């Protein structure tokens, strides 16, 4: 049944995707009116997230960011849909990678890379990186969607240009297998998601919040000895993105625990503060609190959890 639903959804999305982006943006503008004004999709959550993250901003500025966010979110939908049929030439014209030579050089030398991304700008378009980096394996960690048809559709569009999808539950095993086999790889980690309280090993100060964060990417990075890069995304104009790869090196004196994780969130916050409308504010990022964590686990349990990478 899921396969039938997938083929129907794929056909409908493919036909829509064939439209030029300028027409898809007309669709996006109409979608904005429906989602923001009629449905009011998660507007209360977005409003709270913005107000709590930017207490220094006034009401008018926050509303302007809110509206710009919803306009970009609708663009994200149609841009992602376009991945089904966009040509390699067009995606290369619209998705610019600055500093990709660093990654290509690492892969050519047999080294692997960890690429930290956020839900910022159009992260789906970063899956076109294999068009430039042809050595080794370019891959990304993904969390399967509950709807099987939608999951198959997203796997298809994310792998269209040669990016390998790795299911989250098998990511450690897959990447360590590649290491044993001597296969250099670049793995993209969208690491700004919400960990369950049982999986909290680190807290960071992020956008004016005490924030629990995933550290699995850092654990794999350290075990594989991968070079680490942050994907700094910008949107100079509609339909065009620039991704600059910024290397995250070691601090003076050598590696300290959670160094890469803390640097990632620092750099991500810089990106968000530069143009806040392009982050996924509709995500309930701060639903887990330190108060809940302290209430659920004893002091001894918390110390043990926070001591692990």
Secondary-structure map:
Elements: H1 2-17, H2 21-39, H3 43-53, H4 59-82, H5 88-94, E1 95-98, H6 100-108, E2 113-117, E3 137-142, H7 148-158, E4 164-167, H8 171-180, E5 185-190, E6 203-206, E7 209-212, H9 216-224, E8 227-237, E9 240-247, H10 259-274, H11 290-296, H12 299-306
Parallel strand pairs: 1-9, 2-5, 2-8, 3-4, 3-5
Antiparallel strand pairs: 6-7, 8-9
Helix pairs in contact: 1-7, 2-4, 3-4
Percent of residues in helices: 40-55%
Number of helical stretches of at least 4 residues: 12
Oligomeric state of shown chains: single chain
Number of strands: 9
- SSE order, one letter for each helix or strand: HHHHHEHEEHEHEEEHEEHHH
Roughly what is the average pLDDT, rounded to an integer?
A: 94
Global morphology: globular
Low-confidence runs (pLDDT<50, min 5 residues)?
none
Largest beta-sheet characterization: 7 strands, mixed
Strand percentage lies at 15-25%
* SSE-based structural type: alpha/beta
Notes on the protein architecture:
This protein has twelve helices and nine strands. With 309 residues, the protein is an alpha/beta fold. The chain is globular, with a radius of gyration of 20 Å. The N and C termini lie far apart (41 Å). The model has no long low-confidence stretch (mean pLDDT 94).
Care to give the gist of this entry?
The protein is α/β, with parallel strands linked by helices. The chain is built from twelve helices and nine strands.
